[in-house]
Design goal:
Blueprint lengths: L8 E3 L10 E3 L5 H17 L1 H6 L10
Parallel strand pairs: 1-2
């Protein structure tokens, strides 16, 4: 992880099929989505130094 930032993107109109980091926005929940996005930014930022130095996780193999 070179740059630790919010790994999620909230997308109006639906996230593309197969996207691992895009989340569908909920109609009528703009303030909730914005608040959630800010909360994720805050906590990812708080742990940024730890996450930069953490050992990479092993990839999960789906069976």
């Amino acid at each position: 992880m070179d740059d630790v930032t919010n790994p999620f993107d909230i997308v109006k109109g639906g996230a593309p099929e197969g996207s691992e980091s895009k989340v569908d926005a909920i109609s009528g929940a703009t303030m909730t989505c914005n608040g959630l996005n800010k909360a994720i930014d805050t906590w990812v930022g708080a742990y940024a130094e730890y996450l930069k130095n953490a050992a990479p996780a092993e990839e999960m193999v789906e069976e």
